[in-house]
Amino acid sequence: MSEQFDVIVIGAGPAGYHAAIRAAQLGLKTACIDAALGKDGKPALGGTCLRVGCVPSKALLDSSRQFHNLQHLFGEHGITAKDAKIDVATMVGRKDKIVKQFTGGIAMLFKANKITPYYGFGTLHPGKVVKVKQHDGSEVELQGKHVVIAAGSDSIELPFAKFDQKNIVDNVGALDFTEVPKRLGVIGAGVIGLELGSVWKRLGAEVTILEALPDFLAAADAEVAKTALKEFKKQGLDIRLGAKVSKAEVKKDGVHLTYNDGKADVELVVDKLLVSVGRRAATKGLLAEGTGVKLDARGMVEVDEHCFTGVEGVWAVGDCVRGPMLAHKGFEEGIAVAELIAGLPGHVNLDTVPWVIYTEPEIAWVGKTEQQLKAEGTPYKTGSFPFAAIARAVAMGEPAGFVKVIAHEETDRILGMHLVGVGVSELVHEGVLAMEFHGSAEDLARICHAHPTLSEAIHDAAMAVDKRAIHKAN
C-alpha cells in the first residue's frame, strides 16, 4: 500500500525545497523526492543551485577575487605581497565545505519541519501517484492529494562536444578543476560562461569565450552590456562574438575547436573546454503515460500564471516551467504554490524578478530594457549616474560602471533599473522594491540615501531622470 501525503514534491532544488518547507509550515503532511548525490556519493539536497551552481560558483568567484586583488589592487593601498600563490585544492576544498554546509542545512530544515525525504528518481503516474526508484534499486509508491513538480534543469550538451567532465565540461566540471588550466575555452558568453571564465582568468588561465550571437549579453540593457564588455576585455578575457563552433576534438595536446567567425573557419586549441550554452528542463522520464500533464516543445511543463498544470492537484515550479531559470524565481513559485494548496493567496510577479551576473564588475537589472520599450512603443525617459562620481566607489578602487533608471515618460512610474558596477547584486533590490510598490523615479529621488554609499548612484540616477542630478552635468 502506498504511503499517503497531502503534498509530494518531486525535486529538492530551490523551488522544490521552498515548496516542501512552506507546505509543512502550513500543517500539510509533506514528502520531498530528490535523486542527486554529492561528491561523497551521499544524498545532497538543494538542487543544482546549492550543489554545482549558484553557491559553489560564488565561493570560487570570491576566492579568485581575493587572489586577483592581492596581485593587482592591493598595491594602490600600499600593501605589498611577494610571490603570491593559489592552492587550487584548498580553494576547491573550501568551496566543497560551503556546499556541504548548505546541502546539510536543507536536510536539517526537512527534519525540523517533519518533511519525509525520499532519495531516488520520482515519476508521476495517473491519479497523483508518485513512484520512487531509490538508489538501492528498490521502489516505493506514494499517493498525494497534491503533487508539485520541481524537477529543475540540466546543462544543454552540444552533439559535437559531449561532456566527459575532464576535457570537455559543463558547470559541474568547471567547478572542480584540480589545477589552473593554461588555456580555457568557453562556448557561450552567458552567466555561467562569464562567471566561471572570470574565476579561472583571475587565477592565471588564458580564457577565450566564443559566443555565437553577434551581440554581447543581448538580454541586458545595451549600454550596460557595452560597458561590461569593455571592462571584461580590459581584464584580459578574450570574448569573440559571432563565433559559431562546429567541431571539438580531444587530442593529446588539448581540445581542438573549429568555429566560423562569419568570414572563415578558425582553429583554436585549448586545454579545457567549458560548454555553457544554456539549460533545458529536466523532465525526461518524469511523466508516465496518462497523467494529463503536458510538456511544450522545449520539454517544459505547461502551467498557467499560478503554476497549475490543468490536472487537478498537480503543480509545477522552477526551472522546468516558463520564465527565467533563476533560483530566486523558483523560491517564490515554490512558496506561492504551497500557499495556494493551503487555500491562501499566492502569486509571483515575473516582471520584477531581478537578474544578476556575479562578474567584476557585477551586472544586474530588473524590469524592461530600453530596447524592449522602444519595440513596444512605450514612451519613456532615463536617468543614469556613473560610479566614477560616487565617493565610496572611488575609495574602494571600484569606479567602473553606472546605474540607469527608466521611467514612463508620462506617469514617471519606474519601468526598469539597470546596473553595472561594484555591489550591484545588492543595489538592484531598490529597483525591485520600488517597482513592486508601483513607485516613481521621483519617489526614489526623494528618499534620503546615506553618504558616502554606493546606493547614492541610484539616488542620483533617479534625480537625473528629471535632469536634476546634483553631482553631474544634466
From TrEMBL:
Cysteine pairs forming cystine bridges in this chain are 49-54
Active-site residues (renumbered): 451
Names of the cofactor(s): FAD
The UniProt entry, under InterPro entries, shows:
Class-I_Pyr_Nuc-Dis_Oxidored, FAD/NAD-bd_sf, FAD/NAD-binding_dom, FAD/NAD-linked_Rdtase_dimer_sf, Lipoamide_DH, Pyr_nuc-diS_OxRdtase, Pyr_nucl-diS_OxRdtase_dimer, Pyr_OxRdtase_I_AS
Q: Which reaction does it catalyse?
A: N(6)-[(R)-dihydrolipoyl]-L-lysyl-[protein] + NAD(+) = N(6)-[(R)-lipoyl]-L-lysyl-[protein] + NADH + H(+)
Q: Which compartment or compartments is the protein found in?
A: Cytoplasm
Residue span, FAD/NAD(P)-binding domain = 5-334
Q: Which residues form the Pyridine nucleotide-disulphide oxidoreductase dimerisation domain?
A: 353-461
Question: Any extra detail in the entry?
Answer: The active site is a redox-active disulfide bond.
Can you name this protein?
A: Dihydrolipoyl dehydrogenase
